[in-house]
Amino acid sequence: MKHTLLLFCTALVLLMAGCSKPAENIIRTPVPARPAGQTDVLGLTAEPIETVHIGVVGLGMRGSDAVERLTQIPGAEIVALCDLLPDRVESSQATLAKRGKPAAAGSYSGTQESWRGLCEQPDVDLVYICTDWLNHYPIAMYAMECGKHVAIEVPAALDMDEIWGLINQSEKTRMHCMMLENCIYDFFEMTTLEMAQRGIFGEVIHVEGAYCHNLDPFWDEYWDNWRLDYNQKHRGDVYPTHGIGPVCQVLNIHRGDRMTTLVSMDTKSFNGAKIASNHEGKPVTEFANGDETSTLIRTEKGKTLLIEHDVMTPRPYSRMYQVVGTDGYASKYPVSQYCLRVDKPAEKVDARHISDEKIYSGDELKELQAGYRNVILTPEFEALAKSVGGHGGMDFIMDYRLVYCLRNGLPLDMDVYDLAEWCCVAPLSRVSLENGSMPVEVPDFTRGAWNKVDGFHYALAEGEK
Length: 465
Fold this sequence. Notes:
Layout: H1 2-19, E1 52-57, H2 61-70, E2 76-83, H3 86-98, E3 106-109, H4 115-120, E4 126-129, H5 136-145, E5 149-152, H6 160-173, E6 177-179, H7 187-197, E7 204-212, H8 226-233, H9 241-250, E8 259-266, H10 272-280, E9 293-299, E10 304-310, E11 322-325, E12 328-331, E13 337-341, E14 357-360, H11 362-370, H12 379-388, H13 394-408, H14 416-423, H15 425-434, E15 440-441
Parallel strand pairs: 1-2, 1-4, 2-3, 4-5, 5-6, 7-10
Antiparallel strand pairs: 7-11, 8-9, 8-15, 9-10, 11-12, 12-13, 13-14
Helix pairs in contact: 5-6, 6-14, 12-13
């Protein structure tokens, strides 16, 4: 009897175990509670600013170019300049003079925290941050505390604490906090976004983006070796935003869909340690960042993103940028092309005929694109952007749209949740890698409002819609 009872109890336990839901093999990412009294900043607007007074912090490679561009944007005026090195401030003052602009009233330099004075300058409306990555967060936080809108070079935040800090500060102060992701304004990407929104590719189900850029010629150009040093100390996709930004817009991330899970893998550091050894003039054996890092992300609606990072090999420059839909495909690298379904012929198809798609490239591609011009990219504006330049014109479009939206009291093209989603790949990919490439949860940075906005769109002033 006892033996029979034992067998019954054992069978019952096994049955219950078989019926219970297995533990999820995923690393959870906590979402801190929203501070009391705060609400989301989806579609955030501020009072229109007739002339946007700008303070630029960091006048190296990116900052000095930004000063040149901003002087050519209607309604923008640079009123403050800041850099640790005084000669860089003087050089940007000379740029203002060359452009026939008044000298910046505030020139801040000489100390590691000179930027505090710029943030406190009463007439500054927008703090434009182009420093090394480690200083993005403290400057942005203090600027918003001082009642300034902020625009931050990529990546705007380096870990989850910084990401949530920027979100909370923007929600608390109701100040715009935008990352300066220029690649969403490249011409191919803008046209492809328009095509996707019009349904040319059917339903978009998979996208790819990357930053593959051999930085051998540039390592010595970074002040105090900050970029190579950061790669040496940090594992994961430390620079994801150029690749992920444009494809997230196509997928309407936090505007109808959201990223839920990511998994990352990387190679060993075959080249990184060699580059660091050559740079330091002594052997370097420890280098955290792999030569190639790949991250696969899944969304709430069952779509996928593949994001890659490679700055250590002679692989040709590529942001990958591929859009895969149920009825079409777009690719910018290595060859710009579109591929669309064609109606099947009535007659039987030869089995050796492997494709039923129409591929557009060259002149055919340009002709197809001409029918899907992006709403903000008029022929005149495109010509202006290309004449001013900045990565072919996309930097100018980025700055122009930022100033345009502030002048008209409109929501910006990129909000603080875009910043969070595009930057979070860095810390979350590291977590996945350090745990044997386990899946990691991507949190909902909107805290429940990811489906509140219906699709991505550009805000336009009355009369321009």
